[in-house]
Amino acid sequence: MSVEQIGENRSFGGRQLRFQHRSEVLGCDMTFSLYLPPQVQEQPVPLLTWLSGLTCTDENFVHKAGAQRAAAQHGVAVLAPDTSPRGDEVPDDPDGAWDFGLGAGFYVNATQMPWRDHYRMYDYIVHELPGLMAGDTFCDQLDLSRQALFGHSMGGHGAITIALRNPQTYRSVSAFAPICSPLSCPWGEKALGGYLGDDRALWAHHDSCALIRNADRQLPLLVDQGSADGFLEEQLKTPLLEQACAEAGYKATIRMQEGYDHSYFFIASFVDEHIAFHARNLV
Right CATH number for 4-281 from 3.30.70.260, 3.40.50.1820, 3.40.190.10, 3.40.50.10240? Predict the structure, then answer.
């Protein structure tokens, strides 16, 4: 698999890069962003993958979170993929809604028509992108034996569920304002029902609370949630995650941050702490 570099900016001694490639998994052209810290000039560095939320592309986090400083300080590469397949051939929500279809892949492999031919974001994140990172372009710069995941909202859901399902691959996981239980909120019911069909037993494979209750192995888990987040009560359901962790004896750190909302101002306020958390687990 080949990639084409389409952007580069110097940042804190490292390189903020952007690439385009043809995705065989998604059946379309995709873009992703990758920050390489200055330490790659000396040795391969661990890889921290960021999963963004609804309506985002690979660039929102890169431009708004201010993560490059901490990534350079700790010697961690940060990969930011897009949130869904893209292109004229890729179906979108027929009503043009922003919470389904383009920009809203939900990090699952769709099984229902017309979504199943393109909406396979789980395989893209877990298999295809790491395969690209292991290729000739990046193999001398990245140590894929040390990987972690973090994300926001829909991407927080994706980070936690993917990490819990693949504990052999990821050393830690964190999230900002994650959708904690898609089984129990309108966003989740719409996305999982649309992509996976009506069998809610299949949905449980993509529900953080259900996965934590059945986890055989505990990964270090950090969650930050803003108390002033307008989506908290109806969509995010952080108390359900706290309850699942308590019932399962899962030693997560779940912090309610007073007065913070759902925006990138919230993410930028605590992203340094999340990168430091992962750096400690990626040594």
Answer: 3.40.50.1820
User: Is 153 a known active-site residue?
Assistant: yes
Catalytic residue among 157, 206, 262, 274: 262
The domain spans of the chain are 4-281
Give SS3 for 210. helix
- Position 241 scores a pLDDT of 98
Contact 129, 32 (CB under 8 A): yes
Query: Are 177 and 153 contacting, i.e. CB atoms less than 8 angstroms apart?
Result: yes
Catalytic residue from among 33, 229, 274, 278: 229
**Could you confirm whether 229 is annotated as catalytic?**
yes
- Tell me the β-bridge partners of 221: 173
Q: Output the six-digit token pair for 137.
A: 């372009």
pLDDT tens track for 117-140: 999 999 999 999 999 999 988 989
**What is the rounded CA–CA span in Å between residue 26 and residue 169?**
22
Give the strand pairing for 4-11 and 14-23.
Answer: antiparallel
Q: Tell me the per-residue pLDDT of 196-219, one tens digit each, with 9 for 90 and over.
A: 999 999 999 999 999 999 999 999
Please list, in sequence order, all residues whose beta carbon lies within 8 angstroms of the beta carbon of residue 7, skipping any fewer than 6 positions away. Answer: 16, 17, 18, 33
Catalytic residue among 23, 33, 52, 153, which?
Answer: 153
The one-letter code for the residue type at 231 is F
What pLDDT, in 10s, does the model give residues 233-275? Answer: 999 999 999 999 999 999 999 999 999 999 999 999 999 999 9
CB neighbours (10 Å) of residue 44? 17
